[in-house]
Amino acid sequence: MSKLIPQEYDTVLLKTGEVVGLMEQMDETHFLPDYGVETPEQEEKTMAMKPISIDNIEKVIYRSKDTY
């Protein structure tokens, strides 16, 4: 079974159990995450714009068909 490598616009499961969208790939191993804005905590994390490492990603759970 092959493992998907995270890319921009994927939705991923972090090792912390959080589901986030990957907004922008900063380099080969870091992404700007979108935690959402449904709760103040999610909005605060998204607005902080702290990159997440590929090492913090458990797995890709969604990839748009339009992503190549």
Kindly estimate the percentage of residues that lie in beta strands according to DSSP: 35-45%
How many whole angstroms does the radius of gyration measure? 12 Å
User: What's the average pLDDT?
Assistant: 92
- What is the tally of beta strands? 5
Q: What general outline do the C-alpha atoms trace?
A: globular
Structural class: mainly beta
Largest sheet report: 5 strands, antiparallel
Describe the fold and architecture.
The chain is mainly beta. It contains one helix and five strands; from the N terminus they run βββαββ. It has one helix spanning about 40-50, and strands spanning about 10-15, 20-25, 30-35, 50-55, 55-60. The protein has a five-stranded antiparallel beta sheet. It is globular. The chain starts with 10 loop residues before the first strand and ends in a 6-residue tail after the last strand. About 15% of the residues are buried. The mean pLDDT is about 90.
How do the helices and strands line up, and which of them pair or pack?
Layout: E1 11-14, E2 19-25, E3 30-34, H1 40-48, E4 52-53, E5 57-62
Antiparallel strand pairs: 1-2, 1-5, 2-3, 3-4
